[in-house]
Amino acid sequence: MDPTQRFSDRVGHYVRYRPGYPPALIQCLQQYTALDHQCTVADLGSGTGIFTALLLPLADRVYAVEPNATMRAAAEQALGAEAKFKSVAGRAEATTLPSASVDLITVAQAFHWFDLKACHTEFVRILKPGGQVALIWNERLTDTTPFLRDYEDLLRTGTADYNEVNHVQFDDAVIGRFFAPSGVAKHTFSNEQTFDLEGLIGRALSSSYVPNVGQPGHEDFMTGLRSIFQRHAQDGRVSFEYRTVIFLSHFD
Prior knowledge:
Layout: H1 11-17, H2 23-32, E1 40-44, H3 52-55, E2 61-65, H4 69-79, E3 85-88, E4 102-108, H5 116-126, E5 127-140, H6 146-158, H7 162-165, H8 172-179, E6 185-195, H9 197-205, H10 218-232, E7 238-250
Parallel strand pairs: 1-2, 1-4, 2-3, 4-5
Antiparallel strand pairs: 5-7, 6-7
């Protein structure tokens, strides 16, 4: 499947149930990058605007570049009233932005879908001299609690392409080569979500590898998910834990 279309039928769940980002991450961006009220940002693979929304109060202008029309429309509905928000139908490899036009590129939860060679060329083209890049992921932890271990087991046994899609989302060596010879700074933060049963179902269905309503395996997956919830819920809720990681660099 074309990566840009993977989430077209997941947008509602994506907006409601995907994790946000901890305040410490935004503070890190402000401390180590040019993110301020004079800054022009290109948020690439911006999706429904979860991360874009955090940038808008802090920057002069934010280009939200997203190839998926359904996800882009969700961002436009949520953020379109913001004067600083500029929605762009483009890809990381072909943003359509002018050359040397942005101070900061951000990529939240999307870099692993990009063509690295093509996007490297595009990053260099659109950045102003001295511009910076921030690559960000919420990495869902899989083995820190009995619930998370059982949820991971369900994904591996109850979905068709989890093992294929769930490749390592970021790799220090790959990212180091992407920015070479510039160095890369890495910062890590904790993040968490708690869900009732409805929220847990929504969070699961926000993932492209979980069978959606009407798809083969959906009912069996839901049965397994409800069983895990009943087994592990405390006061009617379960928790997802994340390691939020940001890589900061530039191009010499």
